[in-house]
Design goal:
By secondary structure, the chain is an all-alpha fold. The chain has one domain (2-218). It is built from seven helices and no strands.
């Protein structure tokens, strides 16, 4: 059991450590990040319950609608809602890169608990593939969501609301494509490999841009502070 839990938790911890250590400008309070991770972890259970109810009650007859449209939408919406309601106005969300960290944190909280439940059901044989695909993809969706939340937070007042919408729409589109590829029989892995490479390229691009925006943000604050 201990080995299984360690294997289930390790990918999320490793990915979050990577994004956290990329922040070379300021240290985000670990307590707030931990709370965000817990929000994502708790979120797993109501989402799984809703999905189970819809499946048992046969609300949707199409597997495509269930596995692609419904699953992607409900997961990304609730992660976005948690960030907007609990984190967006938080005093410790004080630079654009924080959006990356909070987005990754809530997503990895969700992905970690989902991974634990999956490995408890199907065993360690799927652990490596789970780390490469579902866990890392959730992290990337969270980074993209957090990137646009960071932009919205520190944008001019007139452009913040559209960016908040993009913070939901962008990861949702990526999640829809990811789940859609998984539905392709026989050749899904051949399509998924280049798609995952694209996701990681997109993720690292957003991380770099957020880092540059944060440097500019602190530079502007310093100029204002030193203005005579």
């Amino acid at each position: 059991m201990i080995i299984l839990l360690s294997v289930a938790i390790a990918p999320g911890l490793a990915l979050f450590s990577y994004f956290y250590l990329r922040n070379q400008i300021s240290s985000e309070p670990t307590r707030t990040l931990f709370h965000t991770f817990i929000y994502g972890a708790i979120l797993t259970f109501p989402i799984l319950f809703i999905q189970h109810v819809f499946e048992v009650e046969h609300i949707f007859s199409s597997q495509f609608v269930i596995n692609v449209l419904f699953t992607s939408s409900i997961e990304e919406f609730f992660k976005w809602l948690i960030l907007v309601m609990a984190i967006y106005q938080h005093v410790e969300f004080d630079d654009p890169y924080d959006g990356i960290l909070y987005g990754a944190s809530v997503s990895l909280g969700f992905a970690t608990v989902e991974n634990i439940l999956y490995l408890l059901t199907y065993g360690l044989d799927t652990a490596f593939l789970r780390a490469l695909l579902p866990v890392s993809s959730h992290a990337i969706f969270g980074v993209v969501m957090g990137y646009y939340l960071g932009r919205a937070k520190f944008a001019l007042s007139g452009s913040s609301k559209p960016l908040l919408f993009v913070a939901l729409l962008a990861p949702l589109c990526l999640h829809l494509m990811y789940n859609g590829i998984l539905m392709i029989e026989k050749i899904s892995l051949y399509v998924m490999i280049p798609f995952m490479l694209f996701l990681w390229w997109l993720c690292l691009t957003k991380v770099k841009k957020a880092h540059l925006m944060t440097m500019q943000h602190f530079h502007n604050k310093e100029k204002i502070h030193n203005f005579p």
